[in-house]
């Protein structure tokens, strides 16, 4: 039998026999995970944290975040607590659907105008075939096309309702491309697949009283940093990484496809041919105004969302009736919160002060010491502002000598 055909426990046994040490895993968990992916031999766990109080459009949310990076959840909480003092985040969402692409190879007699005449009929046929999606409030919305030489690029807009919609869109595209392939002067269908081009856009905006972040000077520094992020790709990519720290953590916690969102945001950041910050901070009427627009092709159903208990726990934290629109608004707001916290740290005490304290926790966690000893070591590392592993070991040694 091939490795992939084995039961997960057989795969584990094989690897263990070869001398690999594997972490223990519950049988039932292993079986469930094997249904989600391939060649499964174990699991990888991430800490799940929460942002306790995120106010969006007057509603309060608790937000789950899964990340291994110290300070990401702390930064999101810090940003969100500043938003609370300033009336929260206002959001606008445009959830028209996600794009699908079909590319056809055509001959010289092909007429684009004749093809376009078929579009409304094709949309109807797709909606009849995928009636359950229509029943959920979604459906195929439109088809458009352009021709370049002997290639025709079709763009299909599919509203996936509450799902991210990748599978459904691909099925619709394959259905449509089979019909298109039968048309006169179409030589062949080259491919039919969804496009991760930015769609389902959500904008978050905050208006901050400078007094709530340390005064006008701090606000001005944030505006300047934002301008630098607009002009300079070296800063822009780091600014955007800070945003994605928060965004990815919620995407992962909610079982969403963070690779799709990562790549779509990269397109947004590069819109005018230069890579720029996704966020913008300006002064308007004595307020620091922060804006962030993100592509939020995400879902609250579909994929493995219902099948994963860890993900269902995240939805329980968010509130069971959360829609994909609201989840997109939450994720965008978290991105803005992480961005503000990072800009604040950079423009005041510097990032390392907070980061290293949190990093010290990882160092201390690795020590072979009691809970009490670890607590004392951590406190001393913070007091002495020395966060290295060797210093942690020195402190522990001294501590034991003192006793
Ligand atoms: C670190 O993970 C993220 C930051 O570098 C983001 C930023 O510089 O804006 C702090």
From TrEMBL:
Keyword flag Membrane: no
E.C. numbers: 1.1.1.88
Region forming the signal peptide: none
One term of GO molecular function: hydroxymethylglutaryl-CoA reductase (NADH) activity
Pathway linked to the protein: Metabolic intermediate metabolism; (R)-mevalonate degradation; (S)-3-hydroxy-3-methylglutaryl-CoA from (R)-mevalonate: step 1/1
Catalytic activity: (R)-mevalonate + 2 NAD(+) + CoA = (3S)-3-hydroxy-3-methylglutaryl-CoA + 2 NADH + 2 H(+)
Gene3D superfamilies assigned: 1.10.8.660, 3-hydroxy-3-methylglutaryl-coenzyme A Reductase, Chain A, domain 2
Keyword terms of this UniProt record: NAD, Oxidoreductase
Keyword Oxidoreductase: yes
PROSITE patterns in the record: HMG_COA_REDUCTASE_4
UniProt-listed InterPro entries: HMG_CoA_Rdtase, HMG_CoA_Rdtase_bac-typ, HMG_CoA_Rdtase_cat_sf, HMG_CoA_Rdtase_NAD(P)-bd_sf, HMG_CoA_Rdtase_sub-bd_dom_sf
Pfam families attached to this UniProt entry: HMG-CoA_red
Listed PANTHER family: 3-HYDROXY-3-METHYLGLUTARYL-COENZYME A REDUCTASE
Family as reported in the entry's similarity comment: Belongs to the HMG-CoA reductase family.
Protein name (record): 3-hydroxy-3-methylglutaryl coenzyme A reductase
Source organism per UniProt: Lactobacillus amylovorus subsp. animalium
């Amino acid at each position: 039998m091939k490795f992939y055909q084995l039961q997960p426990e057989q795969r584990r046994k094989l690897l263990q026999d070869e001398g690999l040490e594997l972490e223990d895993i519950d049988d039932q968990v292993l079986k469930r995970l094997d249904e989600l992916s391939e060649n499964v031999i174990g699991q990888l766990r991430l800490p799940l944290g929460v942002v306790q109080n995120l106010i969006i459009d007057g509603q309060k949310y608790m937000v789950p975040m899964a990340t291994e990076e110290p300070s990401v959840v702390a930064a999101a909480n810090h940003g969100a607590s500043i938003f609370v003092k300033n009336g929260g985040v206002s959001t606008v969402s445009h959830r028209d659907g996600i794009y699908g692409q079909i590319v056809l190879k055509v001959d010289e007699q092909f007429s684009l105008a004749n093809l376009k005449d078929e579009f409304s009929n094709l949309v109807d046929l797709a909606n009849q075939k995928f009636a359950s999606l229509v029943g959920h409030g979604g459906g195929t919305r439109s088809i458009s096309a352009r021709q370049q030489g002997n290639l025709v690029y079709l763009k299909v807009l599919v509203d996936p309702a509450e799902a991210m919609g990748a599978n459904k869109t691909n099925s619709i595209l394959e259905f449509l491309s089979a019909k298109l392939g039968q048309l006169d002067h179409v030589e062949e269908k080259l491919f039919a697949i969804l496009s991760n081009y930015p769609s389902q856009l959500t904008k978050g905006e905050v208006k901050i009283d400078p007094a709530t972040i340390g005064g006008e000077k701090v606000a001005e520094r944030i505006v300047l940093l934002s301008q630098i992020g607009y002009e300079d790709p070296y800063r822009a990519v780091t600014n955007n990484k800070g945003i994605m720290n928060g965004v990815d953590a919620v995407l992962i916690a909610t079982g969403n496809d963070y690779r799709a969102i990562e790549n779509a945001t990269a397109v947004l950041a590069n819109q005018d041919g230069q890579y720029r910050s996704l966020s913008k901070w300006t002064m308007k009427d004595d307020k620091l105004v922060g804006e962030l627009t993100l592509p939020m092709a995400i879902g609250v159903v579909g994929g493995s969302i219902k099948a994963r208990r860890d993900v269902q726990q995240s939805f329980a934290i968010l509130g069971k009736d959360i829609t994909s629109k609201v989840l997109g608004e939450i994720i965008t707001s978290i991105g803005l919160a992480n961005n503000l916290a990072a800009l604040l740290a950079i423009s005041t005490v510097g990032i390392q002060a907070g980061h290293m304290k949190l990093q010290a926790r990882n160092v201390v966690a690795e020590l072979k010491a009691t809970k009490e000893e670890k607590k004392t070591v951590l406190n001393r590392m913070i007091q002495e502002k020395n966060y290295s592993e060797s210093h942690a070991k020195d402190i522990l040694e001294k501590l034991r000598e003192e006793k």
